[in-house]
């Protein structure tokens, strides 16, 4: 406040209060900001409505049926009238040797796919980036992308034919060296290598597109500076390309870990048979046999819920570890 006794203006405190009040009146509230945003971007939200409806109808609404895992479900009584049994189905699952075998096989196949399959798209992307001949590059990319667009049924037919003991190319080549033919797809010890190799051949090329896009975003000036400094192509790959796409690699790894229990159901159904159940049966095929073929929908529902919970825990764990140590995460 002024020390002049003749000062008749407002005090400093009142001026500050008035300024704050005026600022408060000018600043819109959260609801007003949301309303203004919706008025400006209503076309975008209108385009989102079909996707939101699809998610609600096909992903969120079916969650109501998860209660089947905790009920003694009967198709005649219906879901609502079936009695609750608590965790009885989960106890049955973990006492079922077939489920434990399927869980063990799922983890084993997923680990093989992660170790051998996850690096392949990265290697392909780096190799494509280093190819200077454009015609050869486009031809090679087309060849490795193509299997992704072929139906799993056709892929399985190709595999069955290739490993056939009578006319398969693999046994034919073995015959040239005087080796006896082997019916690979009836040998449990051969199923996992064949399945993992087939998955890599089918998906590695298409998955490399993500890493090629990440490589395309690297500034060319980094490579130009490296050339001036006398770096070799190999050094540029390890010092520029790989570190630059590392955030993309981490994100894709987190997603891959979350899908570890989602082993390709279609391909296994098409390739496996009772003779290879010991190493080929996975959680999804167990759910199919128990739920669809055996009519035990409640038990299959419990297995499916267990699968989803484990996947959620894996994603959360991988994301937390990645966020803590690399500052890269999904959210």
Automatic annotation (TrEMBL):
Ranges that cross the membrane: 42-60, 107-128, 149-170, 190-215, 236-257, 299-321
Domain of life (superkingdom): Bacteria
Keyword match Cell inner membrane: no
Keyword DNA damage: no
InterPro entries per the UniProt record, alphabetical: MetI-like (IPR000515), MetI-like_sf (IPR035906), UgpAE/MalFG_permease (IPR050809)
Cellular compartments annotated: Cell membrane
Membrane topology recorded in Swiss-Prot or TrEMBL: Multi-pass membrane protein
CDD domains associated with the record: TM_PBP2 (cd06261)
Domain ABC transmembrane type-1 residue range list: 103-318
Keywords: Cell membrane, Membrane, Transmembrane, Transmembrane helix, Transport
Similarity-based family: Belongs to the binding-protein-dependent transport system permease family.
Annotated PANTHER family: BLL4140 PROTEIN
Name of the molecule in the record: ABC transporter permease subunit
């Amino acid at each position: 406040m002024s020390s002049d006794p003749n000062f008749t203006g407002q005090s400093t405190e009142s001026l500050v209060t008035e300024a704050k009040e005026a600022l408060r009146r000018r600043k819109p509230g959260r609801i007003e900001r949301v309303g203004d945003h919706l008025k400006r971007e209503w076309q975008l939200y209108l385009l989102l409505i079909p996707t939101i409806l699809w998610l609600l109808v096909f992903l969120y609404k079916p969650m109501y049926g998860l209660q089947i895992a905790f009920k003694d479900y009967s198709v005649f009584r219906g879901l609502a009238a079936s009695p609750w049994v608590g965790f009885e189905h989960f106890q049955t699952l973990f006492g079922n040797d077939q489920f434990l075998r399927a869980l063990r096989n799922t983890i084993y196949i997923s680990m093989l796919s992660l170790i051998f399959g996850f690096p392949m798209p990265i290697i392909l992307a780096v190799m494509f980036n280093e190819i200077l001949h454009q015609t050869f590059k486009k031809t090679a990319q087309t060849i490795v992308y193509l299997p992704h667009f072929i139906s799993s049924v056709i892929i399985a037919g190709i595999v069955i034919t290739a490993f056939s003991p009578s006319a398969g190319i693999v046994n034919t080549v073995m015959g040239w060296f005087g080796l006896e033919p082997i019916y690979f797809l009836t040998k449990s010890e051969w199923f996992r290598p064949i399945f993992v190799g087939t998955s890599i051949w089918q998906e590695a090329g298409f998955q490399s597109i993500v890493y090629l896009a990440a490589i395309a975003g690297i500034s060319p000036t980094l490579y130009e500076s490296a050339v001036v400094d006398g770096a070799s192509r190999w050094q540029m790959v390890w010092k520029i390309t790989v570190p630059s796409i590392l955030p993309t690699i981490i994100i894709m790894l987190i997603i891959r870990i979350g899908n570890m229990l989602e082993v390709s159901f279609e391909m296994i159904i098409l390739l496996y048979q009772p003779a290879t159940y010991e190493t080929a049966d996975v959680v999804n095929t167990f759910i199919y046999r128990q739920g669809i073929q055996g009519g035990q929908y409640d038990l299959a529902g419990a297995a499916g819920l267990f699968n989803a919970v484990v996947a959620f825990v894996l994603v959360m764990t991988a994301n937390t570890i990645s966020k803590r140590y690399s500052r890269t995460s999904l959210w």
